[in-house]
Amino acid sequence: MPLFVLHLIRSLFRSSPWLGLCLFAVYAQVQYRIPGTWLSFILPSMGIALAILTVIDIVTHIIPVEGRVAATTNTLSRSIQIGIGAVATYGLALCINGALDDSLGVNYRAQVVLLSETNSGSRLALPWTVVRWGPSEQTDRLSLTWGERHRLWGGEIVIMQLRPGFLAMPWIMSIERDEEHYLRELTRTVPRATVAWRHLIYYLLRQNRLDEAQEAARHYLKLYPKGHEQALVVGMALKRAGRYREAIPFLEYVLERHPMYEAYQQLGWTMQQLGEIDRAAQLFEASLPLNPNFWEAYFHLGEVYAGQGKYEDALVMYQKVLNIQPNYREVESAVGELHKRIAALKSLPVEAKSSIPVTYCQPWTARKCWDAHIPSS
């Protein structure tokens, strides 16, 4: 092997720790990016620094240097190493600042002013963008991942999520296309664009903006009355948020136009939470023919009947659950408890049974519910 190649390999091996630090610094800048303009110089600067280190190492091993030349090369090498170490230390600070930041962040609307090129010759460079954002319409250069670079285009309106940082250094968590801006522009230009309204509903739900999602859904359903799937999704989102009264109109809309098992279950559970137990039982019962081989409706009915003190009816429902879903421990435990209560009821005098008030009690396995439904035991 030629002497030069051998020295080159050895030099690259000795430079590998510095290369690792450079790569770490670049990763930190991309992953936990800080708005600013100096970042575009970091990659080429570190590349030049590594090249100088490698050349110095090769030269000093091929051509012996002494005196002032040796001192100069040593000083230059040390300076470059200190510079790379400083950048890597800053990268570590960025990682701590971003990785330990558990805040929700704030979304800012921005416009892409300029983008780096995407031709093959520029693939070695770090992709970047210049954005105009903030109340003062300031411009900042930001690093991008290659995925972001290919998704974005010049002039596009985007949403940047800014987080305060664990070390109080604000950083950009994400840069995404502002879907709401374009969807609202489309619905404003073409008010009857049902597809745009549908996408707007899903976008608002993902953002947990339930009031606006309801408004968009009502407008969409006027344009497209067959949009029962979207009505169901909005109703379920409101139910999950505990906004039961607001969920009811959307779930009833589905049942009026396209009765489906899931809508019965969701509305039944909602009514159960609101204490409208008879209505809940009716809804669960109505769902059975639509999906008779699924255990969920039987489970809910068992819970409702047991809460009403209808222990034998509840036992029938729970047994059906076990026929479909064997070894369901919660239901097996409920069946054992029901047998105890049924036996206690049978031991009561006829007069005592007829005087038991019809009340709904949950959780029905609690002692208070035993006392409510079997008062003289």
Keywords:
377 residues; alpha+beta; OB fold (Dihydrolipoamide Acetyltransferase, E2P); 5-stranded antiparallel sheet; 16 helices; 5 strands; 10% strand
Give an overview in words.
The protein is α+β, with helices and mostly antiparallel strands and 377 residues long. Among the domains are: 3-99; 106-179, Beta Barrel (OB fold (Dihydrolipoamide Acetyltransferase, E2P)); 293-377, no CATH class. 62% of the residues lie in helices and 10% in strands. The protein has helices spanning 3-31, 42-62, 67-99, 146-151, 179-189, 194-206, 210-223, 228-240, 244-257, 261-273, 277-287, 296-307, 311-324, 329-346, 350-354, 367-373, and strands spanning 106-115, 128-133, 138-143, 157-163, 171-177. It has a five-stranded antiparallel sheet. The longest helix is centred in the N-terminal third of the chain and has 33 residues, at 67-99. It is elongated, with a radius of gyration of 34 Å. The model has no long low-confidence stretch (mean pLDDT 86).
